[in-house]
Amino acid sequence: MLGVAELGASVKRSILVAAIYAVAGLALLCSLGFLVAAGHGALAWRYGADVASLVLAGWFFVLALGIALIGLAIKWRAQRRRSMATTALVVAPTVAPVALRALARRPNLAATIAATVLAVGALVGSRWAARSDS
After folding, report:
1. Angle formed by the axes of helices 2-47 and 49-105, to 10°?
2. DSSP 3-state assignment of 134?
3. Which sequence ranges are marked TM in the entry (predicted)?
4. pLDDT one-digit tens code per residue, 44-78
């Protein structure tokens, strides 16, 4: 019974935290609305209401465009990784038997190729990891 009570308390706590985050998000949206209104007021006082509206519209357009481009870049990277993995999964079973038969006939060549593949794989993997971290 203690596990059920702990589960109920955990669910209540999660609901309370979600409600607190929702109220905080609403307060943040309200503050951003007042910030935009104050910015519009300051621009209108300095340059006029029409210019202030155009400046803010342009700023929000550029902001939306930047966010959309970031989203597209993230989506493109995910699709590229998926397509590379799919290609590897399709090609590997086809090429592996032929490569293994050829390498079984020449053991020294097999060791040389294996070492080369490992070195190139380590180099490409380290570059890929460094690029994905930045």
Report:
1. 130
2. coil
3. 15-39, 51-72, 109-130
4. 999 999 989 898 899 889 888 988 998 888 888 76
Its sign, for the CA torsion 7, 8, 13, 16, is positive
User: Where along the chain do its domains lie?
Assistant: 2-95
Q: Which amino acid is at 43?
A: L
Q: For residue range 2-18, what is the model confidence (pLDDT) as tens digits?
A: 566 777 778 888 899 99
Q: What is the DSSP letter of 1?
A: -
Q: What is the DSSP string of 62-111?
A: HHHHHHHHHHHHHHHHHHHHHHHHHHHHHHHHHHHHHHHHHHHH-HHHHH
CB-CB neighbours of 54 under 10 Å:
13
| Calpha distance 123→117 (Å, rounded) | 10
Q: Where are the beta strands (DSSP E) in 18-60?
A: none
Cα end-to-end span (Å), the chain: 49
